[in-house]
């Protein structure tokens, strides 16, 4: 009923830039928080950045100064602008959202995950 769709992944050279987007769809009353995670083979899923409905932003130390998270509340979309990319940024990037989902019986709070988009940083 609520889904997130990521886009923008691909192959990029070290030092390059890439922007990811994630659009939420479905019967949504409010998206309280949107976030980006990433996961590389053999590693735990890592929180990259979060943005709250009021605009509060947090970044993982590993991406501070290089990545920028933003959201368009009207379009229910979150973006991740990635710059100065390094090979260690290579991962599947997942969008995550805490959503107030409007249903026939009322409003339910859901945590929703996107399908992931692969970012490969390599020369």
Architecture blueprint of SSEs:
Blueprint: E1 2-7, E2 10-12, E3 18-26, E4 28-39, E5 46-52, E6 57-59, E7 67-72, E8 77-82, E9 91-103, E10 106-113, E11 117-121
How would you summarize this macromolecular structure in one to three sentences?
By secondary structure, the protein is mostly beta strands. The chain has strands at 2-7, 10-12, 18-26, 28-39, 46-52, 57-59, 67-72, 77-82, 91-103, 106-113, 117-121. Strand 9 and strand 10 form a beta hairpin.
Describe the structure.
This protein is mainly beta. Helices cover 0% and strands 63% of the residues. The strands form two sheets. Strands 2, 4, 5, 6, 9, 10 and 11 form a seven-stranded mixed sheet that branches. A four-stranded antiparallel sheet has the order 1-3-8-7, with no helix packed on it.
Name a few traits of the molecule.
123 residues, 7-stranded mixed beta sheet, mainly beta, 4-stranded antiparallel beta sheet
Overall mean confidence score, pLDDT: 96
Q: Which ranges are low-confidence, i.e. pLDDT below 50, for 5 or more consecutive residues?
A: none
Rg from alpha-carbon coordinates: 15 Å
Strand content: over 45%
Shape label: elongated
Helix content percent band? under 10%
**What structural class is derived from the secondary structure elements?**
mainly beta
What is the tally of helical segments?
Answer: 0
* Secondary structure tally: strands: 11
User: Major sheet: size, sense and barrel closure?
Assistant: 7 strands, mixed
Distance between the termini: 40 Å
SSE sequence, one letter per element: EEEEEEEEEEE
